[in-house]
## 1
Amino acid sequence: MLSTGAYVNIESSRGVTWLRINRPDTLNALSTAAIAALADAIDGAREADAIVITGVGRAFCTGADLSTDVSAATVAAAGELVLLIAAIPAPVIAAVNGPAAGVGASIAFACDLVLAAESAFFLLPFLPLGLIPDGGATHAVVAGAGRIRAARMAFGGERIPAALAAEWGLVGEVVPDATLVARVHAVTDQLRAAPRAAVTETKHLLRAAEASALHSATQRELETQSQLLTRPEYAQAREGFLARTPVHFRAERG
């Protein structure tokens, strides 16, 4: 069964639901409405044996769509999305088929299993915009990679190749691009073959260990990001990003 929406393609077969972010013209950058649509699709698949999130085209998700009105509502929607991924019974798999940046990286790291193509990379490009990592990233990256590596991503804005992300504990498995889909099918087949109650309870217990920290992180991110989005630095940086002329704030301060 295939359902094609404005933002997310939904395909269900043999107990597995594939959700494909469908904004290839923006490299799957997400507006507030698109984040909400992805959350609705995940919630609608909560009874599936497994849920797979991936992207249409050559990107997984390159973050928030800065050509739209990014606001506190966008940050709140991203936080609600990652909390939903953690809370629903079905295991959620990120099939990272290309760049995962900003909230796209946050969504990938929020999933129960993360499989990535060799060409994929992860990026937290918030700082040049005058913003902080959100979508639960301030918890997920520290929990997976440690504070020092999280700082390298957050402060340095460095592209972290899939293989390095796997070394750091942010990705579970890296496979050749051409075999990513086949490998995800193999993983979902394994999940489907196991007793459903055991799969659900395993997820529940693994998530219980971090539930409070993740919830607190999303709340702190929302409070802080909401303030930063109203500052002139963000408005200047956004304008520069859209015009492809990045603003160098250090030069302005002298």
## 2
Amino acid sequence: MPEDTEAPGEETGEGTPAAAELTHTTDSGEVRMVDVGAKPDTSRRAVARGEIRLTPSTVAAVKADEVGKGDVLATARIGAVQAVKHTWETIPMCHQIPITNVDTDFAVGDDRIELTVAVETTGKTGCEMEALEGVTTGLNVVWDMVKAAEKDADGQYPDTRISGVEVLDKAKRRLDE
């Protein structure tokens, strides 16, 4: 099996496919953190993306840096990085991992902003949850920054939505390679 993919059952260390076993519960159904202590440290990277749909006028205001709350993308970038660093505090049973790098990339279209977050770590467990947290929080920050422009007359958000949040890639490699 290539070194950059998770082996079946790797998270459990018991040789059974991870999909066939709930790794965060005991046989009696109690929730537990997975013990990764025996796993070797590896270099790991995960990339996630998502998008927020906005009205074209709101996107134009973001592009022109004319949103009253400030620089939307700079603020969203900070929010995304902060979320990556604090994932272990918001997702139960998620390990606290040493983040070695976070890259954020925004693609601004006519009616949407796409955010891609790449996270790197060296450790015993992956960083895809951190990448997902970065994307969702970054997009939530965009929403928060532009919500006044996105509200309709009834105070609703008929054209605003976050979608397409997914892990694009995850990889690992042994440190001795």
